[in-house]
């Protein structure tokens, strides 16, 4: 006879975690809180393990934020050999309706335990998330934060420059966020700072600031310097006041802030490209449309791809598979809301880039558009196929193989012509006859060097 399950739900927080232990069918035997440090976690685990022995039950933990505030709990319990399941917050939110709709840590913990009690065999294992994937995720999110900070700083810099240089500053350089352009405005935050500069002097200054980054524009430095001085001639003679002194300081600070931001971004991107991503053994960057940051987002958000039994489960998780809303015998599909929205956005961007630069993706997009779909819906179909390709590559560790895709397309067309058309399921997921990005089932995945699918 199978042992009963003792499900322990943990609602992690920064300082104190709340936990609830539940026996089947819904018997609460422990409701407690413990500090977010290793000793307290070990003491809590010992208490729960004693309860499991007392009730002759199998101990299974469940946790929501296993890569954030719950990371220390997950690591400590994993080292102790415990079973730890990752609980989707959507399941917890639905379960809370049974216990009360108020926001309470105790209710959250009990809801997590209830989900584990009923779905333990279907929940992913938190121990599958390696330190490497957690590092990639942290680096990628830091880069995203740096990008937002840089955009805000650039917007403020544009406003201050338009106040002191008026609209003429936009004609000085093609891109404000170039490091040497930022160094120019850091040295000359006001038009008055250019007073007394000759064309030759300013050209030498520009060459000094740009260094080796000018390229073919080096020959036109004299013309650029002359244009800057001519455009600011009337402003150079304007008197300075306290408000202009403040503007000069703000512009200088913003330029230095953006330069520091760009340096941090460059170092993190190099770390991702040279060390973290190669350590995974994956080759996602070989796909047209996937760069360092998009590959980092995919690997950081997914963790272990083995927790997805097939490409359809993966597509539901990343939001490229539509949600079925059927009622009264009518079939209807809508955009999937309950998904990983970071992955959904990345796959959408990958699809857009692939349509522009990959002939296979462009042919499939045009085929779907000619079939009556709108441009947005056609891109969604491409994103779904890119999800299948990414899933197959993650499962095998193989690089993007255009010839294999072309062969798969030809095989699908032959099979469809012999069958005499497409099924309703094919029409729903976008795999119609004609130019198409193929879907990959487990049986069609290429073998790893060990001779088995990974």
Structural summary, described in words:
- This protein is globular.
- 31% of the residues are buried.
- Helix 2 (71-79) links the parallel strand 4 and strand 5 (83-86).
- The protein has 17 helices and 7 strands.
- It has 454 residues and is of the alpha/beta class.
- The protein has helices at residues 38-54, 71-79, 89-96, 105-119, 131-165, 179-187, 199-210, 221-231, 233-236, 242-280, 292-302, 311-318, 341-357, 359-370, 375-396, 402-419, 424-429, and strands spanning 5-11, 16-23, 27-35, 58-63, 83-86, 323-324, 333-334.
- Mean pLDDT is 85; it is low at 422-436 and 438-454.
- Strands 3-2-1-4-5 form a 5-stranded mixed β-sheet.
- The two termini are 34 Å apart.
